[in-house]
């Protein structure tokens, strides 16, 4: 069991959360975006064209690791929901998170990255925590969690992200000091190999509960809370002066206003995302980018960091199930 600090990158608005991961011998430390919405551990590397590697970015150089082994013939290619992408070849090497070490973990080295990743000066790659069946390497490889799971006291990890401050990913145990009240569990349906669960309803601010089922995915690698357009419109209808900006393709609101809380229900348990968490950044002196946006044509809602940072979440592979607690 162990814990690892999750540092918010672009901390004003918590675009992503990065954790230090040690790869190779001697260890090369890279800040990776722990992503429950994907299942590949991929890194900027000595094989990534330097024009795509921002100054000072930590990369993985397999030739400097005495335990690195190329997996001959294996390749990988990823395209994420926002259109970003990366691809490359595969090594195995020692990977350590905190005190948890996997020898011969598959490390997917990037030979190509899209502009979004090249422009991200904070991260050196991703560590996927979705189910292994979502891995995109050919032949498929196991996630870090798949590999470490047998060594853990419990087949779980917990996520305690925070607004503008370091939080933590814990592996194998529940730290009861990280939440208040009860943890309410609900089953996960891994039909897309994702942490997909049902929300039994929602309410806005002090409003009444609307018992409409929301089909949701818990995704630490997505910054926002993406919901059905009908719910998004009902939410911004509560904020005077808010509007849909065609310029940004997003709902914006007057920064002078604190938006209403967004509450979602797990069974009958009310989980709250405080309105003060909804500011995803200033787009002018007066207008702010809303943390709640439309899921568009996605077949499920995405409970990204805007929602996750308000909660303590247990990702339990034993059933599988997911547990939520306020904090
Ligand atoms: C798939 N979950 C995270 C994500 N969405 C867009 C990009 N990334 C890394």
- Strand-and-helix sequence, N→C? EEEEEEEHEEHEEEEEEEHEEEEEEEEHEE
* Lateral strand order in the biggest sheet: 2-3-8-4-7-6
The multimeric state of the shown protein is single chain
Shape assignment: globular
Gyration radius, rounded: 20 Å
End-to-end distance: 22 Å
Binned, the helix content reads under 10%
Strand content: over 45%
Structural commentary:
With 327 residues, this protein is mostly beta strands. The chain has helices at residues 115-119, 144-148, 229-236, 305-308; strands at 2-9, 16-23, 28-35, 41-43, 69-79, 85-97, 100-113, 125-128, 137-138, 156-162, 165-171, 184-187, 196-199, 201-204, 214-218, 225-227, 243-245, 250-254, 262-266, 269-273, 279-282, 287-290, 292-294, 301-303, 311-316, 321-326. A hairpin with a 4-residue loop joins strand 21 and strand 22 (287-290). The longest helix has 8 residues, at 229-236. Residues 35, 37-38, 80-82, 84, 126, 219, 221-222 line the site of N-methyl-1-(1-methyl-1H-imidazol-2-yl)methanamine. N-methyl-1-(1-methyl-1H-imidazol-2-yl)methanamine (4AS) binds at residues 35, 37-38, 80-82, 84, 126, 219, 221-222.
């Amino acid at each position: 069991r162990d814990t690892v600090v999750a540092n918010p990158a672009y901390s004003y608005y918590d675009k992503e959360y990065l954790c230090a991961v040690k790869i190779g011998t001697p260890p090369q430390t890279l800040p990776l975006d722990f992503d429950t919405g994907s299942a590949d551990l991929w890194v900027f590397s000595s094989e990534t064209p330097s024009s795509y590697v921002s100054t000072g970015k930590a990369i993985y150089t397999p030739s400097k690791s005495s335990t690195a082994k190329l997996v001959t013939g294996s390749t990988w290619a990823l395209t994420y929901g926002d259109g970003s992408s990366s691809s490359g070849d595969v090594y195995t090497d020692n990977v350590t998170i905190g005190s948890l070490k996997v020898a011969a973990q598959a490390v997917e080295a990037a030979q190509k990255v899209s502009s979004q990743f090249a422009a991200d000066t904070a991260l050196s790659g991703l560590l996927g925590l979705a189910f292994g069946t979502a891995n995109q390497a050919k032949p498929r490889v196991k996630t870090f969690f798949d590999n470490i799971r047998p060594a853990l006291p419990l087949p779980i990890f917990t996520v305690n992200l925070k607004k503008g401050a370091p939080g933590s990913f814990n592996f194998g145990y529940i730290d009861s000091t990280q939440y208040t009240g009860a943890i309410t569990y609900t089953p996960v349906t891994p039909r897309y190999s994702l942490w997909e669960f049902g929300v039994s309803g929602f309410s806005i601010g002090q409003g009444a509960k609307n018992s409409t089922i929301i089909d949701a995915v818990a995704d630490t690698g997505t910054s926002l809370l993406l919901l059905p357009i009908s719910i998004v419109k009902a939410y911004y209808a509560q904020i005077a002066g808010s509007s849909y900006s065609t310029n940004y393709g997003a709902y914006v609101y007057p920064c002078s206003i604190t938006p209403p809380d967004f509450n979602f229900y797990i069974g009958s348990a009310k989980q709250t995302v405080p309105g003060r968490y909804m500011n995803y950044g200033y787009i002018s002196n007066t207008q702010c980018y809303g943390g709640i946006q439309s899921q568009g044509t996605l077949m499920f809602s995405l409970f990204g960091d805007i929602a996750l940072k308000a909660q303590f979440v247990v990702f339990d592979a034993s059933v599988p199930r997911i547990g939520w607690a306020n904090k």
